[in-house]
Specification:
This protein has 360 residues and is α+β, with helices and mostly antiparallel strands. The chain is built from 13 helices and 13 strands. The chain has 2 domains: 3-201, Heat Shock Protein 90 (2-Layer Sandwich); 227-360, Heat Shock Protein 90, CATH 3.30.565. Helix content is 47%, strand content 25%. The protein is elongated, with a radius of gyration of 22 Å.
Length: 360
């Protein structure tokens, strides 16, 4: 799956975040922070926003508490906020001999009425039905209660007698719509297919949103949790700098539509190297100039890139327009000593989808 194809798939999302890196408790707040910030811009009611935050917490905690694999690709978390509905999905590895029990528990919950769910929750709480890893089904009961919807689930075989246990739930966020529009309906099999393609392409995080400083910081915190401090510190710094620079490239140069600079950031691992990719819309008239700048950077040897950067930096002191026209990309190439891969895809008569990637 090309990054540009992923952008098209998430194009209508106000917020799209897929993550299958290392899971930990402290990441929960990052996800919730991004979702609440997004809801604030959409003027979603605090009551609805709080319910979605609760569902995200329970869904994510289900992975942290019960996931068998703590590394990449064993666990998965997704949230997608569309104009009228929010989808929350998690996946964690479970032993195949636990599947039938889980099916029975969730199917039973899906057959209960609102009142029966409340009674089941209170009786389970009173009976102290807890496992050694947390609540035994209490989170599932509360998720069904808070959303008012049935829990969607499936099991996908993985390896070593385990399967991915996918759990998905949705909640309407725009009460003006009595039903979810057809173009906003996402089936669980579509999410499972997306996760499969992310794994195949080595993507551990994909983030689609309006790019601003307050949105970039939580993403950086998530990635920091995936970096081993005992590994190459210089390489880790290059990764963080690459995320910052390519994200800022979106926030500064993406086409502004309805007050937002929308884009997609993807981070992954290929052949033991991290890569960072972004996609965003640009003015069609800017393509030739940007292509020439990137081709020039790619044709320079390391010493020439450094000189090119210093020259551009000196010129930027006297020309503010020059500073905003690619100096950050020159600096990134100088630091990583890697070439860019990039493409321009048609979007409409006035815009192009610009995708750029760099390896670390």
């Amino acid at each position: 799956m090309k990054i540009s194809e992923l952008y098209e798939k998430l194009k209508n999302d106000r917020l799209g975040l897929a993550y299958q890196g290392i899971m930990s408790d402290d990441l929960t707040d990052r996800f919730i922070q991004l979702s609440e910030t997004n809801f604030d811009t959409q003027e979603v009611s605090p009551k609805i926003s709080n319910k979605v935050s609760f569902l995200m917490f329970e869904c994510f905690q289900n992975v942290v508490r019960h996931g068998l694999d703590k590394g990449y690709y064993g666990n998965f978390f997704l949230t997608r906020n569309l104009p009228s509905v929010s989808y929350i999905t998690s996946a964690n590895l479970v032993a195949n001999n636990k599947i039938e029990q889980l099916k029975e528990i969730i199917s039973d919950l899906n057959n209960l009425t609102k009142e029966e769910l409340k009674e089941r929750y209170l009786s389970s709480l009173a009976a102290g039905e807890f496992s050694d890893k947390g609540g035994a089904g209490l989170g599932l009961i509360e998720m069904a209660r808070k959303s008012g919807n049935k829990l969607d689930f499936d099991f996908v075989p993985w390896k070593n007698e385990t399967s991915h246990f996918f759990l998905s739930i949705n909640m309407k966020t725009n009460k003006k719509n009595e039903s979810i529009p057809d173009d906003e309906q996402i089936q669980l099999n579509e999410i499972i297919d997306l996760q499969k393609k992310l794994v195949e392409n080595g993507i551990i995080m994909a983030f689609k949103n309006n790019f601003s400083e307050q949105n970039i910081v939580p993403i950086l915190k998530m990635m920091e949790s995936n970096l081993n401090e005992s590994e190459d510190l210089a390489k880790n710094r290059k990764l963080i700098y690459s995320i910052i620079e390519l994200s800022q490239n979106i926030s500064k140069h993406a086409c502004q539509i309805e007050g937002y600079r929308d884009g997609l950031l993807a981070i992954g691992i290929e052949n033991n190297q991290f890569f960072v990719s972004t996609s965003n819309l640009i003015n069609k008239n800017d393509e030739d100039n940007l292509r020439q700048k990137l081709e020039k950077i790619n044709h320079l040897i390391p010493n020439e890139i450094e000189q090119h950067y210093l020259t551009a930096l000196q010129e930027s002191v006297h020309n503010k327009e020059q500073k905003s026209a690619g100096i950050g990309l020159i600096d990134l190439a100088n630091i990583t000593k890697e070439n860019y891969s990039f493409e321009f895809s048609p979007d409409n008569n006035s815009m192009k989808l610009f995708t750029i990637s760099i390896k670390i």
